[in-house]
Amino acid sequence: MDFSGKTNDSTPQSGNTARLFVLKEQSIKTVFFFTAAFAVIVVSFILLFLFRDGYPIFADVGVANFLLGPVWAPGAAEPLYGIWPLIVGTLLVTLGAMIFSVPLSLGCAIYISELASPRVKAVLKPAVELLAGIPSVVYGFFGLIVLTDFIRVTFDVPSG
């Protein structure tokens, strides 16, 4: 992209057109600068509030007890903030999801690319691409809504 004030056929633009172009470009740069500065300020305030409100916990508990503590009970009479069970639970859920999804997705990809007829491929490929375009948060919310009630009723627990 050439911003030198010349058109593609190398004929110079008139003075007014070039000045208008430069003015528009400067205006857009200014808008982008202030938008980026505003985003940096907002993120800075978020970090400031997180550090301000989170520091007392680290001062009382310590980083090692926070990361490796075996109990998460922030509402207890004497609060405990160990996130080790949360980390392990996250890793186990991730491992379980991968055990289920990797073979399924590889099988689907191999079938579509190597075995499916052109007619089946024409239907499955856009369907898979559409599913891939949906954010994982949407699938998680759907799972939360559907599976929570299923688990609560099936296993007779007070919450899913």
What does this structure look like?
The protein is mostly helical. It has a domain at 1-61. Helix content is 75%, strand content 2%. The protein has helices spanning 15-61, 63-68, 84-115, 118-132, 136-155, and strands at 72-73, 80-81. Strands 1-2 form a two-stranded antiparallel ribbon. The protein is flat, with a radius of gyration of 28 Å. The chain starts with 14 loop residues before the first helix and ends in a 5-residue tail after the last helix. The mean pLDDT is 88.
Mean pLDDT: 88
Q: Tell me the overall shape.
A: flat
Uncertain runs: none
User: For the CA atoms, what is the radius of gyration?
Assistant: 28 Å
Strand percentage: under 5%
How many helical stretches?
5
Helix content: over 70%
- Structural class determined from secondary elements: mainly alpha
Biggest sheet strand line-up = 1-2
Cα(first) to Cα(last) distance is 56 Å
Summarize the biggest pleated sheet: 2 strands, antiparallel
Oligomer category: single chain
Instruction: Please provide the ordered H/E string of secondary-structure elements.
Output: HHEEHHH
- The count of β-strands is 2
Question: Main traits of this protein?
Answer:
2 strands, single chain, about 160 residues, 5 helices, about 0% strand, mainly alpha
How are the SSEs ordered, and which strands pair?
Blueprint: H1 15-61, H2 63-68, E1 72-73, E2 80-81, H3 84-115, H4 118-132, H5 136-155
Antiparallel strand pairs: 1-2
